[in-house]
């Protein structure tokens, strides 16, 4: 492994991957977004902040949160510093802002027709963007080796980026548990599985996905989410000696 992670770094990567998974897979919820705004969640991150894409993504999402908090303060006639979750959830300005995020999330990632920034591996790598093909089945097999199954697996593709980031978070958690138990062989095998999953199913199409998200996102929130997810993947891939080449727009093994 090119850059082994400490126990603390592994724990931070696990949390960050889970957050990224939720941003893409779960429709924005007022209570969740209120917590993000009230706690300045995107002012920092536990893992990957040295990556420029990650830093740009955090900055954009933090701008959205600050602007939203300020708009709510104007509506309520109070100082932005006093606006917490309760005030946000009672604000019509905030509820409309989250409503706009939900519409944007649907347009970008879910879409009644073709999403503008599809999160499916199949969309980018399968002939004619065929769903439930080899990619989906290969990812499903990876999940099953760890006792996991998508709830609506007959109707919902397994190769959704949000699900795959969540799976990586799970693998990191298992590696962390193995290392804490002193089981070096299992920890190494889990790290190798993470690398293979990244290389086979996530990294090959991540740059086109980020470009689509950046091109079609209307808000700092989702422009930032695209950069955050991409930068997090870049930072995580570095542990395996894999870097993003900006000239060729591909991921390559460091020589």
From TrEMBL:
What domain of life is recorded for the organism?
Bacteria
Pfam families (UniProt xref): Nitrate_red_del
Keyword Chaperone attached = yes
List, alphabetically, the Gene3D superfamilies matched. TorD-like
Q: Which organism is it from?
A: Adlercreutzia equolifaciens subsp. celatus
**Protein name in UniProt:** Molecular chaperone TorD
Residues folding into a coiled coil are none
Keyword Cell cycle listed: no
Cite the InterPro entries for this sequence.
DMSO/NO3_reduct_chaperone, TorD-like_sf, TorD/DmsD_chaperones
UniProt KW keywords: Chaperone
